[in-house]
Every structure is written in structure tokens, then in C-alpha cells.
Design a protein that fits this description.
single chain, 193 residues, mainly alpha, 2 strands, 65% helix, globular
């Protein structure tokens, strides 16, 4: 008897791109709604952070092909690969970029938007580094999910985690550099009557 998972197949880059576009529309609407209270820079940063987290989930948790189906238990990996820089980094390419570069680039917007989102408040001095830790935990959770859900046909790999954290760190550094330029603390001020 066929299960729903055997009949319904979702995956491929088209699904990832469509999902990211839809998430972008929702994020833009969120920014428009919240800019009155947060100011434009902070509203865009918060919406951008949320969009980047959704985009990361789509790219890493949607199967790469719609025809993956069910991965047999004997074909499923039981552990994460600890082979740093292993063979998968050179076998997967998009737009001429290898998997390692893509993993780094995927997390750059999240690190950037994180700094700009919390940079409005003095508490951002504490929240930004904590947020960077949360992004590292997010990467770990993604890899653990890839290990547990064989149907995704993805591999849990320590190289991916390192590259993801590196990307978040690069985005974080760019955000710190841009913070005095963007000045998210200059939000809308209440009008005096």
C-alpha cells in the first residue's frame, strides 16, 4: 500500500526558489507593516533576518530532486561525516560555485541582518553575539534533521556546519561595518503635537 510520502514528491531548485520568493513577499509586507514602529532600517533588517532563515531552511531541507522518493534504511547514513572538506564540496555546483562556497554564502545574509536587526537597541551588544550562537545552533539543527530524515536524501556533514558558521560570521562582520552607516537606531520618532 502506497503512503502519502510515496505519492507526493516535492523538491528541486524550482520549489526552493519559489518558496524563497514567496517568503520574500511576506518579509516585504512585514517590513512595510512594522516600519512605523521600528523605522525603515530596523523593519527591513528584522524582515530580512526572518526571510534569510526561511531561505536557509528551504535550500537545506527541501530535497534537491523531486523524484527522491523514499531512501531505503540500508542506504541511510547513521552518523554525520567528520571528513572535513570531504568529497561533496567539489561535486555539487550552482552558477560555477562549489558547495562549500554556497554554504558560506547562504548564511551571510542571516549574520548581516542579525546585526542590523538588534543594532537598534543597546542590548544589541549582547543580543548580536548570542544571535550568532543561535545561527550556529540553527546550522547544527539543520544537519541533525538531514541525518534523521533520510527522505531528504541529504548528508549530515561537519564541513557544512563550519562553512555555515563562517558565512554567518562574515555576514556579522559586514553588519558591524554597516551599522554606523545604516544607523537602525534612527527609527521613527513620535510626532509632537
Amino acid at each position: 500500500m502506497a503512503t502519502l510520502a510515496d505519492v507526493v514528491t516535492i523538491g528541486g531548485t524550482g520549489v526552493m526558489v519559489l518558496g524563497a520568493l514567496l517568503a520574500g513577499v511576506v518579509a516585504a509586507l512585514l517590513a512595510l507593516v512594522t516600519r512605523r514602529w521600528l523605522g525603515t532600517a530596523s523593519a527591513v533588517a528584522v524582515a530580512g533576518l526572518l526571510w534569510s532563515l526561511v531561505a536557509i531552511a528551504l535550500v537545506t531541507l527541501v530535497p534537491t530532486r523531486p523524484d527522491v522518493g523514499v531512501v531505503p534504511a540500508e542506504g541511510r547514513s547513521e552518523t554525520c561525516s567528520w571528513d572535513y572538506g570531504g568529497p561533496s564540496g567539489t561535486t555539487f555546483e550552482v552558477l560555477g560555485l562549489d558547495q562549500r562556497t554556497l554554504n558560506v554564502l547562504l548564511f551571510v545574509p542571516a549574520g548581516l541582518f542579525l546585526v542590523l536587526a538588534v543594532g537598534r537597541w543597546w542590548a544589541g551588544v549582547v543580543l548580536a553575539p548570542l544571535g550568532l550562537g543561535v545561527l550556529a545552533a540553527y546550522s547544527l539543527a539543520i544537519e541533525f534533521t538531514q541525518l534523521q530524515l533520510a527522505r531528504l536524501d541529504r548528508a549530515c556533514d561537519v564541513t557544512d556546519m563550519v562553512d555555515n558558521v563562517l558565512g554567518a560570521g562574515i555576514g556579522f562582520a559586514i553588519g558591524v561595518v554597516l551599522l554606523p552607516v545604516v544607523r537602525p537606531w534612527r527609527g521613527r520618532r513620535p510626532t509632537r503635537t
